[in-house]
Backbone:
């Protein structure tokens, strides 16, 4: 079934840097955004994520190719019609003066209101619904300038929702937020895509969250190629590791995490159960040990002994047993070996 809302054909994006010279950032992009999907646009710094979002939003003419929104060329749509179909949330903090959160969200109804911007009861209901959908009814009467970054981001999303678009584009909506707020905003956007059947595309540097929450990933590499697929498809194809390969850091396909290159310190046996063993393994890997949970014949072994009150680490080296009550002390001991 094809639920494509926004499609691109052989799109080349970039900048006209002089009369004769063009800087092409990415080329030959033929993709589509589908109804009800949350798509995360990932890529290293400078890959062209913001350029792509602006090009899809009709704010920056492409160097070649086309962007179609419900079949219409986006660059030929009249601005009011475009605003009814597409909303854009940018990262920059906008100076909105003394506006209340409610008033800011109600500006999202601008494409539908009369010349004076009067809201009908139906507009008011949509504004109320948008604020409620992002869980921000308690913020409605507050001044936007007094809101925290996370609170303001919710209000900006509500404003975009109030526009009743079919596509929402967001440039780094989780920048400046702490981890719980980032998870909350990403989950909210995924839920909104499902409930409103909108297509939502957001750029982010939150690779871990995108891997866990996105229906689809658009992965833009620095050579201007866009890889598209389920997050797991891009991990399995190696596109993820290749795109983020850099000196000192590598993507671990097995764990889905990025690891720093650390000098290899040797292999170590680890035994034990429960959550303490998980964090013991992480601590040992962090400092460069290869952990073995099966073999028992290695020169160094660690046993994690835990009860409801205490965790102890018993380390055996050359038949001598040393006991520590913190991973910090255990690692310190291993670093001296
Ligand atoms: N106005 C401009 N004129 C010419 N080149 C530009 C302009 N704006 C950006 N660029 C270049 O285009 C490339 C892509 O920039 P863009 O901001 O789209 O990347 P990004 O993936 O969003 O980066 P980041 O993750 O750092 O925000 C970069 O090489 C940048 O230097």
Residues:
């Amino acid at each position: 079934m094809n639920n494509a809302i926004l499609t691109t054909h052989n799109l080349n994006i970039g900048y006209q840097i002089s009369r004769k010279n063009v800087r092409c950032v990415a080329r030959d992009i033929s993709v589509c955004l589908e109804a009800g999907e949350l798509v995360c646009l990932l890529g290293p710094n400078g890959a062209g994520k913001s350029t792509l979002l602006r090009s899809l939003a009709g704010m920056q003419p492409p160097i070649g190719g086309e962007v179609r929104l419900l079949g219409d060329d986006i660059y030929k749509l009249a601005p009011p019609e475009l605003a009814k179909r597409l909303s854009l949330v940018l990262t920059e903090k906008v100076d909105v003066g003394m506006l209340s959160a409610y008033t800011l969200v109600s500006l999202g109804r601008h494409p539908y209101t009369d010349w004076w911007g009067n809201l009908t009861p139906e507009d008011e209901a949509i504004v109320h619904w948008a604020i409620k959908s992002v869980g921000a009814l308690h913020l409605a009467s507050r001044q936007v300038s007094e809101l925290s970054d996370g609170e303001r981001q919710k209000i900006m999303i509500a404003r975009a929702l109030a526009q009743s678009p079919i596509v929402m584009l967001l440039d780094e909506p989780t920048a400046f937020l702490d981890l719980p707020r980032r998870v909350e905003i990403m989950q909210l956007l995924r839920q909104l895509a499902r409930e409103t059947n909108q297509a939502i595309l957001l750029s982010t540097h939150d690779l871990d969250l995108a891997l866990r929450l996105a229906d689809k990933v658009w992965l833009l590499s620095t050579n201007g190629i866009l890889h598209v697929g389920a997050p797991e498809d891009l991990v399995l194809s190696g596109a993820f590791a290749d795109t983020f390969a850099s000196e000192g850091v590598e993507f671990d396909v097995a764990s889905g995490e990025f690891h720093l290159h650390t000098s290899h310190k040797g292999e170590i046996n680890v035994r034990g159960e429960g959550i303490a063993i998980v964090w013991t393994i992480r601590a040992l890997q962090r400092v460069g040990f290869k952990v073995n949970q099966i073999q028992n014949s290695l020169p160094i072994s660690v046993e994690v002994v835990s009860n409801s009150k205490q965790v102890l680490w018993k380390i055996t080296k050359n038949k001598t047993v040393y006991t520590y009550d913190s991973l910090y002390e255990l690692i310190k001991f291993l670093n001296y070996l």
Summary: Residues 15, 17, 23, 25, 43, 45-51 surround adenosine-5'-triphosphate (CB under 6 Å). The chain has a mean pLDDT of 90. The first strand starts at residue 4 and ends at 16.
